[in-house]
Amino acid sequence: MKNTFIMSVVGHDSPGSIKSIAELTRGHGGEWVTSKVIRLEGQLCAMMKVVIDEAVEEQLKADLAAQFPALRFSYSEAGAEEAAPLKSISLVVDCKDRPGLTKDINDILAGLGLIVDNMECNRAHVSTIGEAVFTARLALSVPQGTSGEAVAEEIETLSEDVRVTIL
Length: 167
Description:
- By secondary structure, the protein is an alpha+beta fold.
- It folds into two domains: 76 residues, 2-Layer Sandwich (Alpha-Beta Plaits), CATH 3.30.70; 81 residues, Alpha-Beta Plaits.
- The protein contains four helices and eight strands, in the order E-H-E-E-H-E-E-H-E-E-H-E.
- A four-stranded antiparallel sheet has the order 2-3-1-4.
- Strand 6 and strand 7 form a beta hairpin.
- The chain is flat.
- The protein starts with a strand and ends with a strand.
């Protein structure tokens, strides 16, 4: 019988670590259905949806811990698929930076009941204007009836300088 779970991996990244984890998973007869990997300043954070025979699941987990002692592995049950059909929208938010901006964007998205699939925020000082600017790239899962324009309008209420581009 097959079992499906979510595997999370966190820790110091080294060259080929993701490839080695994938090879070990395949060596136990498992497969990654989906995965997301993020690297930031030498650190790795990854999530994989793993399907594997129930009989070898515990051995895979033990072997991962033994072969990758610098990484932390955690496991959780794979959730059921969403009942309501969702669609994806992608946005870019640009504005002057200020404290609390990321929180305010997340509050709006949560208030609208949207699922954040990916959010990447960057801040940079622009010497020609003497200020820091903020850019966020968002990938959202939204109900079928929700328009990107409606989400953009809500985010743009944060301040006059906020501009949202729908990709």
